[in-house]
Amino acid sequence: MANNEDLFKQIIAHAKEYGYIFPSSEIYDGLSAVYDYGQNGVELKNNIKQYWWKSMVQYHDNIVGLDSAIFMHPTIWKASGHVDAFNDPLIDNKDSKKRYRADVLIEDHIQKIEDKITKEVEKARKRFENFDEKMFRETNGRVLQHQKEIDDIRERFAALMNANDLAGLKALIEELGIVCPVSGTRNWTDVRQFNLMFATKLGSVSDGADTIYLRPETAQGIFVNFLNIYKTGRMKLPFGIAQIGKAFRNEIVARQFIFRMREFEQMEMQFFVKPGEELKWFDYWKQTRLQWHTDLGIAPENYRFHDHEKLAHYANAATDIEFKFPFGFKELEGIHSRTDFDLSQHEKYSGKKLRYFDPEANENYVPYVIETSIGVDRMFLAVFSNAYTEETLEDGSTRVVLKLPAKLAPNKVAVLPLVKKDGLPEIGKEIFDKLKKDFMVQYEDKDAIGRRYRRQDAVGTPFCVTVDNQTKEDNTVTVRERDTMAQYRLPIAELADELHKKLR
Ligand code: GAP
Prior knowledge:
Among the domains are: 87-192, 2-Layer Sandwich (Herpes Virus-1), CATH 3.30.40.230; 411-503, Anticodon-binding domain (Rossmann fold, 3-Layer(aba) Sandwich). By secondary structure, it is α+β, with helices and mostly antiparallel strands. It has helices at residues 4-17, 39-58, 75-79, 82-85, 102-127, 133-139, 141-162, 166-175, 219-223, 226-232, 278-294, 341-350, 376-387, 424-435, 449-459, 469-474, 495-503, and strands spanning 21-23, 35-37, 63-66, 87-92, 99-101, 192-195, 199-201, 211-213, 239-248, 263-273, 303-307, 317-325, 328-337, 356-358, 363-365, 368-375, 388-392, 398-402, 413-417, 441-443, 463-467, 476-481, 487-491. Bound molecules: glycyl-adenosine-5'-phosphate (GAP).
């Protein structure tokens, strides 16, 4: 059984081998934290986006879509606070010349202590028959000591981050004895703030041209279009605006594959509500978003909420939906109650009124906002890593199968003539032509049927349809299901209906 690190490496290798994800610019040795989606990756990604878009825009009569430009007026980023405060604290190791996020070094240190607790728990689990983890955590001396250490570091760390105390962060790193993973030394520079936005110049001549930014989130495109959509869509509160699009962040520590990238995609929805009603809607979106995830059939224990104790100055509630990635529970989606901060800031900086007229109260006000924000790529990684399965079959052989939720799988069905003769390929192609209008279908007639099944399992195709000699006699085919490997015969005429039923 592979450990989590090995498993993660296998998942990354699998993503490449089966045309899901390639390192960007690979023939030039790649570009750090930038990835390309291959022939299967683009389908899975599009299906994720469609699943989100439908759940937001199609299934809600009060949510509409938007596709705003990546380049926006530079003052937007001043108003939103990104120019002054969208920073990460960075620190360099003087020996290795490697750069790190100071907060990540401390979080990794905490994670190491947490790993010690997990090891203690695992050891005890093996020793005691009626093992009660909660009681063990509350009574075991070593675990209590580790937990106290973690609580103490967390408390000091949060205070330093809130106070923006960079010297204090460096002192904490030194006190905890954190070493550079590359050089192994503690020869650190001071901690400095580093703005994450990519800047470029507008216009063909850079001299005198205005600095503009590649957007670090899609949300601001929604806020600055609030009035346009409210007026032209004759919207009434509460209503939402949803957008899917690219975002860019110059991440200092970009790692863990597509978990943290420099160019990525977000699916964001801003839900505008009457002031005073925001916490009710915050709860609604918390539950609705979790349901969206678990509706995919992924086990609920892979998700948990992480409510923010320390809130940003403009928020009055915030939570993350965390997912159990191969490297542990990490943020997958954020749900934030952002009050009227963004619209009020844009009112201030643009000089335009961004208000809603409430006909019942007969007054104008700036609506409050609940935001749901999820990275497409992070969702991709969640679904993909959860789907990757290695099974030992009855005959002792292993099967690698990608148990993707069927509605997200790149190809829904593969049509496979048993042999490449006797008229079977011709029937297979006819079936392909029939199904292709409704589904993404693959046609394959090379190699032995067993090898083709294995290949479709590894790509994650939920159904295979095999054409054999009996097909010529009674117009039936064998349908094989990916997860159970169950096989049954169906008339060709019923295939499309049956697949629709299974995929709904
Ligand atoms: N508008 C709010 C916002 O952007 P965020 O927590 O910074 O909030 C929202 O980002 C989501 O975007 C995250 O939960 C994550 O899924 C995704 N995300 C953020 N930074 C990312 C990165 N560097 N690479 C991939 N996904 C990222």
